[in-house]
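Quick one:
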Amino acid sequence: MYALSHSTARHEAAERKTFPIVWAAILMLLLFISHSAKAQVNTGTLSGQITDSSGAAVAGAQVTVSDPATGYTRSDKTQSDGQYNLPNLPIGSYTLTVAAPGFAVESESVTINVGARARADLRMRVGSESQTVQVTSQDNALARDDASISSIVTEDTISETPLFLRNWDDLLRVVPGVQINRYTNQAGSTAAGRTGDFNVNGVHSLQNNFILDGIDNNTFSENVQELSTEAAHPSVDVIAEFNVITNPYSAEYGRAPGAVVSVNTRSGTNQIHGTAYEYVRNQFFDAFDYFSKQSLKTKAEDNQNQFGGSLGGPILRNRLFFFGNYEETRIKQGVSRVATVPLDNERVGNFSPAAAAADGISPYPTIYDPTTCSTP
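Output:
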């Protein structure tokens, strides 16, 4: 009995030693997989060529990008042909700095958008490394490193555009080739209020691909019972920017023949930023539409309150940040439906002119015998 219990104890101890090894192996595998994944559905790439004043390539130049808002820094050295490549950069505004022996330091501001392949070619000037040349240039609309057709909707556009029900999906209207189904209270179908319902270049609305921070964000129900094509529908205040790729996109996206909508959420910075808001709408401010006015004496109740706030800032400066958001929507709405019902005389089949006059309406239309189709 003692030997058995002693053996069991040793077996349990061996299992306790095995579990950390197994978990460590799983963690290493996940890290390897995440490191090997090169798709940049929620990041961007910066590349270019560094040359001297004569147009010759500058090899071995130190290329550094830094984001002053978060302190994030990446660097690379140019190859023999002067080319450099900085993939998987988080979106934001960067300062690009290039330094090489015998040349003055070149500096330029660049913006990295979600899913975009930006390019910055710099021509270095002979001088001391203590000198810094600030280069100011305008963004080139032609992307030489990417054949896809896309539209970036930035944070400024998102925050400054009035949106019905504060749905950021309405901004898809500004993208060429996009047709959004209009929302209306007069329609009785559930699809009339579905978010993310848009067609791109004639492709069905359920063939679009939604991505949120690089993660699949599509619902898969065939009849869209959740009234949204997106699994998670973030608040307007959470979105930093989004990219709509209409065609032709690269193999890193795939999945569907429609558009790719890649959304990136905001993050904290070294500065504390926050918002607080409440949007109010009710029937006292709403117009009484023409069709409802024909059949209703008073407007239907339509009270809407949307309130919340967001806050972001540093936990460890240049290292760790936080960002949180809360939003609540309360809607109390009376929806009117117009229908035709038979009058009392019509219920008993009396369509005579006298019955029409008694009902105070114009004469009934002539009713024909269905067997002859001609006899009143």
